[in-house]
Structure formats: structure tokens, C-alpha cells
Amino acid sequence: MTVTEPKPSYKYVGTRPVRHDGLEKVTGRARFAADLNMSGQLHGIVVRSPHAHARIVSIDTSEAEAMPGVKAVIIGDDFPAVEPGHRQYDMCINVIARDKVLYEGHAVAAVAASTRDQAQAAAAAVKVEYDVLPAVLTIDQALAPDAPVLHAHMMTAGANPPAEEPSNISNITRFSGGELDAGFAEADLVIEREFTTQPVHQGYIEPHACVADTGQDGHTTIWCSSQGHFNVRSSTATLLGWETTRIRVIPAEIGGGFGGKTTIYLEPLAVALSAKAGRPVKMVMTRDEVFRATGPAPGTKLRIKLGVQSDGNLVAGDAYLIYTNGAYAGPGGLLGAMTVFESYKIPNFEVEALDVVINTARSAAYRAPAAPLTAYALETMLDELAEELGIDAMDLRLKNAVAEGDPSTMGFPFARIGFVECLEAVRDHPHFTAPLGPNQGRGLAAGYWFNIGESSSATVNLNEDGTATVVTGSPDIGGSRASMALMAAEELGIDPHDIRPVVGDTEAVGFTDITEGSRATFATGMAVVEACRKMVVELRGRAAKMMGADIDDVDWVDGQAVYTGSDGDKDPLSMAAICAKAKRTGGPLTATGSLEAHGAGPGFAVHLCDVEVDQETGVVRVVRYTASQDAGTAIHPSYVEGQIQGGVAQGVGWALNEEYIYDSDGVMENPSFLDYRVPVASDLPMIDAIIVEVPNPAHPYGVRGVGETGIVPPIPAVANAIYDATGCRLRDLPMSPIRVLEAITANGGSNGS
Amino acid sequence: MSRVHVTCTINGDPAEFLCDGGQTLLDALRDEVGLTGAKEGCGTGDCGACSIVMDGRLLCSCLVLAPEAEGTTISTVEGMASGDDLHPLQQCFLEGAALQCGVCTPGFLVAAKALLDRNPDPTETEIRYGLAGNLCRCTGYDKIVRAVQAAAAAINES
Amino acid sequence: MAVSVHLSSNLRGPTGGLAEVEAEGATVGALIDDLDQRYPGLGDALRAGVSVVIDGLLIAHPEYEPLADGAQVYFVPQTAGGS
């Protein structure tokens, strides 16, 4: 760990206790959504479109409804109509298609039956007549002058002059600063490069699953796996046209999300089936459905031009970014535009980013959405510039890295950030100067993500014996319950294992936004701290009553009330002693914290990767990996390391293997973990995580979110390492063996031979 | 379709269940026996989340038909601890923070135990290849491999 | 309250390209109203979904955020996240 400045000496924050939910998870007792079963439950199956783009002419459910065991069949017309312009129009028509299907796998109907086999048979018997339309599958097809338009209402937002005809461009984002032409005129070296990348999947191991039980009173309870159960509630309410109070959502354990479970797919269908059948309905996706119908991250075409002076000063940057967001408007290009030049001082820049729709599944967030791809382009180009100028790649980055006070691409000056410290941590690591073996190469790359705040709530309840329960509304996707307990322990002065951290359902805790944007430990942590601080005031008041003292003469120190007044000595009172007398001093001890968190601190990361390239086969093996990241303050360092290491593994998969492959009709050809190959243990080395701590001034413990930034640098780090090993620049993802081999061959055989 | 009656031994106890002829052993364990520790991540034998040991062999239970369990001896993650005493692998996974979301954890524990049962002192490479049939998307495998190393050391010391 | 307003470049259409303008308001909401008077159309752009940065703090929903005299207010696109 690299600690950059003195910080308070915490008793619990920064320690590594066993996580509270760990025992259930190592014994197989933890209940994920698919592990739940209700008495009398039916099984729901979704009928999905075999076509990438088609008009729905008719749906005939009569045969399916008459089949054995079938209790309910629903189609899009069973839900309230939605019109373009509705706030959640895209979500509504994505969960179940209305007049058109927009990608292969788009839901068109759903069936509930007594057994899964019966439901599957009935789903196959739902007759859907399609008028098949030409499919738009690539960026070039989407932008072609005569391209079929996916959405007749899609007028490009941000177009100048305003769009008059619908198109497949949902949004154009432009940022600029300085004078671009003057900037390039000052440059001694200018390079321009193009990159392409393919959609990839988040690849969480747990498929989407839920159970919905709708009673005759018109209320429903949903148990599900999601990154935000309040969002499940509001989206379900919107789609069904129900009041929020009719829906209770209980979060199950969630088996990975990475952004892909920030939206919803099954829950409204399960509720509607359950309402129609009068029975609980369980729905579990297959892996095939997960690939075809849920969350890929965007594919891109990127063109970037950089100008640099001979001393290494970056002076100009021009970026043209195109992101696909699947079949609906999405934020890929906007986020790419916001991140592409954000890490470096580039006084003259222009960014134009297009968000484009194509006939593939609707994109969902995936860890630092859009940023890994702009980093791939920019960070490999920085390496080219460094080599051409004869400047060390690390020195070039240190020279241009943004620091406190430097303007961001969007104009505001950065608060305290830790980019330079992350660079230095890697530079000073033994890996940086370690010798390389034959056919090996080393790559350096940096990454940035802004992180977000949003709304969070927490309740602290003290129990009769002096232990505490901390309830929050943030689903725990990476160990955040342990972090909540550690922050509460620090505030209350009691052992983390005397605190039970719980994720409360939508009726048990205040509104809380989705676990996304690396916000849980940051923002929900702030709510926990606020609740605990209120509780400490309450405890001092209760203790003052018991001591016969004034509250101002009672301090809270190390988990007990201490008398500091001048009226002789009084024995300190422990939490347990105060709780034992709660009935006599004012009743139950409960405090809440609810807030909209401001000041999510940006996260920076710097990665160093060694690869070994098999010159005969093009196979690339990552043989050593070191990753630094600014965590602000690491509340539970093991899980900060885990976030970094997990991001690295996903980034390496993205770099080397992962991609969606479609046939010419838009049918996905690799919807399994056999053909869509994510990294396994034997593909990776140990990943040395260096936690850098440059405290975020906006958080009581200095926390910055750590969930996302770690996936940003791996792609360029691997690409730069491949170049170092082979002399080949690969500008198309994935850098699969065939591509590497082609590049080596085109380059005249193996490096140095 | 008539149901098939299966008699076997699960986690040391005699067990019986009824299943459909085409049902996977994974579904039978989860839905008929009530052991939901084994998870379905893919249903095609690619992710290892449903790992079990049947007659000494590590298997993906999603690739086994439930009637094939007749007369066999099966171990699942639910059988790893002895009462309140966790298996050293479980203890080391906990202490080493070798799980994040935890959905792959049962499969990893079963596969790691199978590995240590046949190779009590594996190298890092042997651990990585021994667990290559199990996907984890959260951890990057680092802490999982270290936990298996720690557990092997703990078992060999005892 | 006179404050300095900094607009990210995608928001500069109504100001004719000006990056920094002066305006008044006791809260960010009042400031946006004033900006809309001075630069017709800017109010809609700012209410459509922007965040502000004030004193280094990113504030996602700033309508009622109080402003001090002489504050530097940066309007930036609203952000979303993924993990």
C-alpha cells in the first residue's frame, strides 16, 4: 500500500476482518435469487424473437394456453401502452416488445406453467408472425445514407443544426477547449490512429433470476438479483402502471453484476404472470438468454489524433468516437467523450462522439462504461509518441498527468486526485525494472473513472445487548457490507463483528439508488456515518441521564460514554449498559441517515503488464501484472484489492478473447461460455494490487469508489506489452491469436528475427 | 412421464429422491433434495458453479442425468464442514477474502478439495490448471489461488 | 449573488460559444433562471440534466444548492455509472 499523506489512526477502518456474509457463502447456504422457491410456485419462460429486426404482425397464444400445466401467457399488449418520449420508454419496450422486435432474443411473450418443461413446451407453441426487416448490425450499416431506421422517432439529440429526419444516431456529444488548429500547429509530432472494438458481456456467473408473488389484494413481492432493488420497484411500477406501494422488492444475494444488473428484464413479466395466474412465478434465465438478451458493453470505432512537442508536452487532441448502444439510445459516446482526454493536460482539444443504435441487445453498463475503449486508443498512442520522441513511456505520462487544480475536459478544476501518485507507485515497484524473458514484452497504461454519488439511506438499530444492526439499501456486489460494518464500528467504537450489516428491502430502509458508479462504499458509507453520528449524540444523551450529568459533559470514546465534567468521578457506561436501560431512558435506540452524496472523488489507476507471445501461434499469455489504484482510503483493503484484481481479469479477457460474434442476420453465434471465452485461473498470473491512498476530501473517511477504474487500463497495458514483445501494434479488439499471428506475419515474422 | 426413484449417498447420509428421466443431477439436487449450494451458471459444463464429487470424480452436475446417481456416493459443498468446523479450504477462503459475490464459491471449494485430495501439495500452476474448469468473474483468481495454497499448507501441517 | 458560470463546451450554443459568463442567483435553480433570461434557451439545456461542480464538489441534482457571492459554478454533463 502507498499512503501519500498522514491520516487519522483508525481502529477498525483499514483492517481486514472476515466478511459478515462469508460463512453462508462458503457453506452453500447463501440464498441467491434462483435458490428461492415458493409454495405453489409456477415457472416462467420468455418467448424470444429469432429475428434481429422485424415487425410483429400477430401473436397467437391460444395453443400455448391450452397446453398441460399452463396457467398464464402474456404479451406486450397486456401492459399499458407507452409512447416515445416517455421517461422509461426504452426500458418498457425492451422488457417486452410491442410492435417491433429490435434484436435477436427480444422478449415478445412469456408463459407460466407448473413445471419448467411445461412452460418451455408452451413457449415453443406461442405463434408469432413476423414481417422481417433488414437488420442493422454494424456502425457502418447504421450510418449508411439508406440505412433502415430502427426508431421512427429517433431525432439526433445534440445535432447542430437540429435533426429534421430520424436516424440511427441517438446523440452527438461535442467537447472542446483551446484552439485545435493552433494546437496542432505547435506540435512537433502528430499521429492519427483508428481502432475498432466489439461488444463484450459483463459475464456475471449468476444468470438473472427472480420470484414474484402477487396476491389477490393487488400487491406483489419480488425476490430478485439486482444491483438496485429500488430501481426494480420503480421500473416495474412504471411498466405495469402500478403505484409504488403495491410492490415490495426483497434483494437476494447477487451473483455478480458489474453494471449488467443495473437494469431490469424479468421482474415485470414475473409479476404480470403471477397476477394473471394467482400463483408465485419464478423466472431464471439460461446462459444463452443472458448472452442474447442482456447487457453487452458497446462496440466502437474510434479515431484519435494527438499532437506533442519534442519535449513531450501534449498540445492537441482530436477525437471522433462512435459507440453502439445496441437497439436503444445509450450513453456510450457521451461517456467516451467525458473520459478520453480526462487524464492528461491537453490544452487544445475537440471531441465529437456519436451514439448509434443497431439491431443487437440493449447495452447495459459495464464497469467504467466506455472508458476502457478510449483508454485503449489513447494509451497505446501515448506509447507510440513516447517511442518516437525517445522519451520513457512513464516519464511522458508523469509529465502530462492531471493533478489538483488542473482543468478537466469539462472545464472544472480537479480536486485532490491521485494520478501522479499511482504512476509513481508503479514506477517504484520492483516489477518496473525487472528483466524480461524471451518473447516477452512489457506494457504500461493508465485509466480514469469519475465515480458518482446519488442517494443512499441507512438505519442503525442498537440491540438489547449492545450490538448493532446496520441496514442499508445498497445491494452488496463485492463486499460492501463489510465496509459498512467497518465504518459503523469506527464511529460507534465497537467491534465490527458486534455489528450486523444488512441489505434491507424496499419497505425496510429508505430509498437508495442502484449500486453503480462505484458508489456503495462512498455514498452509502456516508449515510451509515451520518446515522452513526446521530446515534452517538443519542447515546451521550442517554448516558447523561443515567449519570445525572449534562450531555455536554459526556463524550463518546472507544465505544463508551465517558464523563468529562467537574462533578467528581463517574464510571464510564458501555454501549451494552446503555442499551440495557433503553426503556428507562427514552426507548429504542434507532438512528437514520439519508443523503444525496456530493463529491464522488475521481479514481485513477496505473497498470503494468508483462506478456509472453508465442510467435508460432499468436497466443498471448499474461505472465506478470501489477496494478496501482487510488482508493482514497481503503476501508477493507482485501476487497479493494479484489476489485482491482477482478477489473484486471475482466480487462485482460476483453483485450485478448472476448467478443460478440453475429451471423449476417444478426443471430449471435457464440452465446455460451465455451465459445465466449472469459479468462480462467490458468490464463492469469497473480495480480499485484497496490492501493494508493489519496483521501477524497468530500468523504468522512476519504473514500473514493474503487469498483470500476481497475478495468480501464488493462486493454492498453496488454496492447502495449504485445507491441513490446512483437513490434506489432494491434488496433482491433480482441487481440486474439489469429490477429496477433497475422500482425506478426505482416510484420515480417517474429520480432528480432 | 413416470418419475425415477434414485437411492444414493449424499454428504455421508443415505438419500432418496424422485426425478424425471431427463432431469439433470444439478436440478435434482437443488429442486428434489433441497441442496442449493451447487449453482447453475451455464448449464453446459463450462463454468463449474455446479461442481460436485460423485464416486470420487469431480463433475459438473449439470452434465449428469439425475438417474445416473443411482447407487453413487455424492459430495457437495454442504458436506464440506464437519458440524461447526469448517474445512480448511472454507476457512482460508474466508480469511483470504477469496470470494466476492460468492456464487462461484461452492464450485471452487468442491473443485479445490478434489484437487487437494489427489495432490496435497500442488504448485501454483497445478492449482491454476486444477481450477481451470471453474469461472470466477469477480476476483481475478489471485486470492482464490492463495487461499488454496494456504489451505494446502494448513492441511499438511495438521 | 454574482457568480461566475463555466459551461462545458456542449452547453455553449445559447451563449454564442462563450465558455464563461457572469450571472446571478442565490441558488443554482435561480442562477439557471437568470441565465435563461440572459441567454434564451440555456435554461432548457441546463435543466435537461446537468450536474454542477462547486468548490471541487460534484453535485448531481443542484437545483436548490445555495451559492455564495463570487462562487465559481461549472456546469457539466450528468453522469451514470456501472459497478
CATH-scheme architecture of the largest domain in chain B: Roll
Strand content of chain B: 15-25%
| Strand runs of chain C, count | 5
What is the helix fraction of residues of chain B, given as a range?
25-40%
The top-level CATH class of the largest domain in chain B is: Alpha Beta
Sheet with most strands: strand arrangement of chain B: 2-1-5-3-4
Report on the biggest sheet of chain B.
5 strands, mixed
Inertia-based shape of chain B: globular
Give the helix/strand layout:
The complex is a heterotrimer of chains A (753), B (158) and C (83).
Chain A (H helix, E strand, L loop, with lengths): L1 E2 L18 H5 L15 E7 L5 E7 L1 H4 L4 E6 L13 H7 L4 E2 L5 E7 L2 H10 L1 E6 L6 H5 L25 E9 L2 H7 L2 E9 L2 E2 L7 E6 L5 E5 L4 H12 L6 E5 L15 H11 L3 E4 L2 H7 L2 E2 L2 E9 L5 E11 L7 H8 L8 E9 L14 H19 L3 H8 L18 H9 L12 E10 L4 E9 L5 E5 L7 H13 L6 E5 L16 H28 L6 E4 L2 E4 L9 E2 H6 L1 H4 L4 E8 L5 E11 L6 E11 L6 H20 L30 E7 L20 H13 L10 H10 L7
Parallel strand pairs in A: 1-29, 2-14, 12-13, 17-18, 21-22, 28-29
Antiparallel strand pairs in A: 2-6, 3-5, 3-7, 4-6, 8-18, 9-16, 10-15, 11-12, 11-14, 16-17, 19-27, 20-21, 20-26, 23-24, 24-25, 27-28
Chain B lengths: L3 E7 L2 E7 L5 H9 L17 E4 L2 E4 L12 E3 L12 H8 L9 H14 L5 H7 L11 H16 L1
Chain C lengths: L1 E6 L12 E5 L3 H11 L3 H6 L2 E5 L2 E3 L12 E6 L6
Parallel strand pairs in C: 1-5
Antiparallel strand pairs in C: 1-2, 3-4, 3-5
